[in-house]
């Protein structure tokens, strides 16, 4: 997935979750933030960000904020894509190169009371796939969500019911950066999501985490990242390292 007309800027503030103030060529602009998550550890004053020029010239905001550089002790800055809207496009690019012969892929398909990101039809039957973008990182550990998501819990519960009804079901966590060592559900922010994720996994819903090759003007899914579905020093850790969904093999 590629962007057009990308330029670097300096983050100043975020008046609300949709708008950021950014310095671009000595001019202060209001730009659209393509991520409604908190991103508090990323969007800090002075951070280098990247802006993509909007294709609609009539828009009030002429640029979208799509990526940020996160400083790290003793390491180069980590480039993190923040565009939650591009995650499904990048996932589709990746999925289409892995579909079994004769399989079809549809986006935004309703099942029960939820709308899933993808439906895959093949000789193995019908499968539903939900995609979640991950931007929260701490010393190589990435977590989801960065804010409570009742919608995410609902998706997991619906996927579990779909699996129990005989459909294929999976969740793809797209880590919008490289160098992630481990994924965990963010129990501190939304314990109900962590429990729903474990319940879904135990019911047979497949889970996969993929990191991304990120440049200021592009993002592409790259390699699997292991997962731990329980966190905390007193918890017996189970590490999962799935390589692929079975409905893609």
Task: Give an overview in words.
The structure is a single chain. The protein has 249 residues and is mainly β. The chain folds into two domains: 6-79, OB fold (Dihydrolipoamide Acetyltransferase, E2P) (Beta Barrel); 87-248, Trna Endonuclease, Chain: A, domain 1 (3-Layer(aba) Sandwich), CATH 3.40.1350.60. Helix content is 15%, strand content 46%. The chain has three helices and 17 strands. The chain has helices spanning 87-96, 150-164, 191-202, and strands spanning 6-16, 19-24, 27-33, 48-53, 63-72, 75-81, 104-111, 114-122, 125-134, 136-138, 141-144, 168-175, 182-185, 206-215, 218-224, 227-228, 239-240. The strands form four sheets. Strands 7-8-9-12-14-15 form a six-stranded mixed β-sheet. α2 runs parallel beside α3. The longest helix is centred in the middle third of the chain and has 15 residues, at 150-164. It is globular, with a radius of gyration of 18 Å. The two termini are 24 Å apart. The relative contact order is 0.14.
